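Help! Submission page says 'invalid entity' but I think these are all valid:
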Amino acid sequence: MNSLGFPILSLMLAVPMVAAIACLFVGANAARWLALGATLLDFLLGIFLWSAFEIGGAQWQFTEFAPVFGRFAWALGIDGIALMLIMLSVFLMPICIAASWSSIEHRIPEYMAAFLFMETLMLGVFMAQDIFLFYIFFEAGLIPMYLIIGIWGGKERVYASYKFFLYTLLGSVLMLVAMLWMVNNAGTTFIPNLLTYDFPPEAQTWLWLAFFASFAVKLPMWPVHTWLPDAHVQAPTAGSVILAGVLLKLGGYGFVRFTLPMFPEASAQFFWLVMGLSLVAIVYTSLVALVQKDMKKLIAYSSVAHMAFVSIGLFAFNRQGLEGALIVMLSHGLVSGALFLCVGVIYDRLHTREIDRYGGLSNNMPAYATLFLLFTMASVGLPGTGGFVGEFLSLLGAYEANSWVALVATTGIILGAAYMLYLYWRVAYGTARNPDAAAMPDLNKRELAMLGSIAAVVLWMGVYPESFLAPMRNDVGLLLTRIERANPPGDAALVRGSGAPAAAGAAQHGASATATAAHPAPAGSH
Amino acid sequence: MGNSLTLTLPEVVLSLSSLALLMVAAYAGDRTSRVVSWLAIASLLVAALFIPGIIAPTGIGFDGLFVADNFAAFSKVLIYIAAAASLIAASGWFSRGGVFRAEYPILILLSSVGMGMMVSAGDLLTLYIGLELQSLSAYVLASFQRQDTRSAEAGLKYFVLGALASGILLYGVSLLYGFTGSTMLSEISVALGRDGVSTGELFGLVFVMAGIAFKVSAVPFHMWTPDVYEGAPTPVTAFFASAPKVAAMALLTRVAIEGMGPATFEWRQIVIFMALASTVLGGVAAIGQPNIKRLLAYSSINNVGFALIGLAAATREGVASVLFYMAVYVVMTLGSFFCVLRMRDAAGNPVESIASLSGLSRNRPGFAAALAIFMFSLAGIPPLFGFWPKFLVFNAAVQADLTWLAAVGIATSVIGAYYYLKIVKTMYFDEPAPAYEPSTDRLGGALIMAAALFVSPLGYFSIPLIDRAAQNAAGSLF
């Protein structure tokens, strides 16, 4: 039992679960309110969880352990990283419910039930302390998402739902075999114990690849990202929000929780594989995003590019990279979710996602245009928003690991600015190309509340990221001590220059110019 | 002798009651079908109480011909449950079609006697007799709707191919007897272990494996399955897919482990081939099936493939995983077939097309949810309980250093997932087809609900219980 005296994590899983079952037996309106109530209650519990989380305290807090399943246990517990991702999930969930309030018109009780089940499973992934419990939650999320895309999706929903399901299933089944091997080798299913177990380096290679197959599909990394644009475009707005906001983060969380600390040697061995795929993703998907005609598809491709910053930061093997990657995960969760909501807002009015049909929205929808601009800027990574903090730290880490990686990755920021501003220009500026678009009313109160609350958090994260970094700092430190032994040497090992006086000879000047010109990093920053 | 008879009490009870019920049926006619059916269920219950290992102690009877160990007990419990459940389902179904003949429950009882002997066989001849008793009853059951040509065809096909399989099996038995000098499993094992596996013994082993593979319908000996499953009356198909599969799988396990333990290297290759071929073919061939019974036939081939992966491990853990697999498989399959039994159009005629399930979730949300649970569970997607037996067989394979087999096997499970998803898609994504006739069969509904609850995440709470029983049962083979 934990310090609170009651199993708060189980409670947070139970609330949406019970509400989901209840939703199936009530009418449409009752289901809406029930879902909103349950997700808000879970959000309040989440806030309470955050406030009760002891920063700098034990690594695993609020632990619960009940060996009721024989082979594995109902073992829950969170560290700071999990806490932040839980907060992200519980924060986005009520917004998703609100976003579906009137845009979902049929089979509402089932819809709400699917979302609530989804919430339980997502939270379970972040809370699980038993490797098989983790796998069950991780895989189970496929079922509600499959139904959400397939029942309430767009025209090509059936194809998209199959692709989503089978792609991610194939990715994760190999991970199960790797888990079985690990558990038989280490003799425990308890994640904290596995985290301190050193697997033989030659086995790590295979285990790493098996886990990578799963997490790379989830994240998603190029070239296994192709399910994402299909799923995003076809899913209903709230489905896209939860997909981009939380489900993609499961891949990043998997890297942090399993791949890096359990297989440090293999992670170093595959440094270039990850970096190579991420760099291709950044450049390639950014270019693809540039030519999209469908708004959702554009944002979906931009997600792939942004998630590549996560993988680059994580495999940079240093604090800046890791913390940056985690912040990118949080800020991308909020920003891409918000962008999908922005698309949803105008889709609800005009029922098309084609960029060409809109234009000049800043004239008739000023509030919408302002918020959309904010999220566009956050996506670009403008200072003052969460996106800047994450991508900057992540690039800093990448630079320390390898300057070429940082160089190519930085082009992603420029390309990102290009496609996002181009999108914003076509949608919001100029004159309306379509009388229907010009007649669209501005945000209503519900939409304003949804987008406004996300905007507040995005700014908070940009101005004072310490609130979000503080709970994770200890855990990043522990992760670093774990992976340090395998850290591949970087090419940017800067040393403090000797700094010749201005009057010194010209010959000496040339030699030390590079060292002084570059920002002199403190020695021993590793 | 007296002790031997007590060990066979379940079989004795079932035989005597089937004879008595046969008299009732002969004199009182088909009016008494329902009563006979309930009495048959009652006798299955009584027989279950007498299974050695439940209350009475386990033992070996008739000088080793009949083995009543924990392994047999576990299998028999499963078989009797499956037989009783398919009896309950049948009485409602047949009475709708006109004639529910009183011979039906009796044939199921006789088949159960045969299955009991199969799983308790300590000797190849006991095995053969048990198998034939089970099969002969099954042939009759397959063609039970005599007027229906499909049913008659199914019975004939089943008989011809089944007889061929029996012939192959018997030939293998004779080879093994000739080269090892005994038909007792324990002595064959000793002979195989003494001086390696000779060519003659190898031939015998292959033929015996092939003969039994027919009965579990593992690829490449599966071709009768879709035809028979489609043609046989649906309650009979439900029975075929459950109890005889358990019996044949248990039989295969016992023969492989107890009788051919020293030749594990030789038979493992066969089992691995059959396992992977079954999971792949069971997955691929099902994709284009428009008939739900044929689809479930391929599903059973697919599932048998996964169970065989556990057998390929050839360890105690592996055998336990096979037993666990069969336990969950029986519930999932029976649950699915109970759903199929309720598929009747507005006029009350049974329908079998998958297309008729379109949009079922809107007309009959409970029915659709139950069938969706069974489908996801058969596909082995967590958190449904169907995931767990797959987990166990892969775990056994990994422990036996067959990690590659686990990896390939689990990858083939994705193929299978596709067609299970197709059913869910038909029920949930498509526009509604004409509604089914509302079902009045409350008992059937209760059974579906019980099965759905068992394969729901609640089933995980039963892991410690079933695991202990399966481990105990597996322990008696080593």
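Support: the input was valid. A stray whitespace character was the problem, and the output above is from the cleaned input. Chain A has two domains: 1-265, 270-489.
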